[in-house]
Amino acid sequence: MSVLRNLESKLAGLVEGTFGRVFRTEVRPVELARGLAREMDDHRSSRPVPHAYIVHLSPDDHARYTETGDEVREDLAGYLLEHARAERFSLAATPVILLDCDPRLGLGEFGVEALPAGSAPAPPVSRPPAPIRRDPRPPRGVLAVAGRRFAITEAGALIGRSRDCEVVLDDANVSRHHARIAFDAGAGWTIEDLGSTNGVRVNGERIHGPAALRTGDRLDIGTLSASFEDA
C-alpha cells in the first residue's frame, strides 16, 4: 500500500463503525489503538515504518478527546510503540499521534493516516500550565483610635458618633457624621471633614477639604487622637 495514497480514498477505506453499528456511538480509545496498529501493519514493508500518524475524528469526537489534553495521544503513542516492538518493526523515532477534526465524519467514524517519512512533526512538547495571574491585593487601611483598630476597605468608611457609621466613636466631641475616609486608585487614601463642629486635623493641621492620608499620619478627630496605616 503506497504511503502517498490519496487522503479521500484512505478515509473511505479506513472509516470505522459505518457498517458495523446499527447506532453510531462515540469512538472508544481501544478502537483508535486498533486502527493505528492496522495502519502501521499496512506499512510493514517500509524500513523504517512510519512513526507519525493523524487520526481524523468527527467534530463531536474531536471535541471530547481534546478535552483530555495530551493524555489520550500519549497513551495511543505508547500502545503503538509496544505494537512495533512486538512485530519487530523498525522505527525512526517515538510514535507521534495527531488528532484532526474532519467535518465530513459522523459521530463514531474515524480515519487513520500514516505520514510519510520526513514530513512527520516533532513530538509535542509538554509545557507547564501558564501561571494564574491574580488580581492585586485590594487596598486596606487601618484606623487606630480610642484603643481600637478599625479596618478600612477600598469602599471607604464614615466616621462619627452615629450608629450608621463604619467607625463609631462614642464621644461627645465627635459629630454624628464627623469625617469620611475614602480610597481612589489614582489619589490613594484621603480623609475629609464633613462639616463637623470640632474639625479634623492631620499631623496637627486642620483640614478644610479632602486631605491625603499616608502610613503613620497622626489624626485628631474632635478631641480624640488617632493614627492611620496603609495595610
TrEMBL record:
Check the record and name the SUPFAM superfamilies matching this protein: SMAD/FHA domain
Query: Where are its TM segments located?
Result: none
Kindly give the SMART domains that the UniProt entry links to this protein: FHA
* Ranges where the record places region Disordered: 118-139
The protein in question is named Unannotated protein
Q: What residue stretches are annotated with the FHA domain?
A: 157-207
Q: Where is the composition biased (Pro residues)?
A: 121-131
Organism, by scientific name, is freshwater metagenome
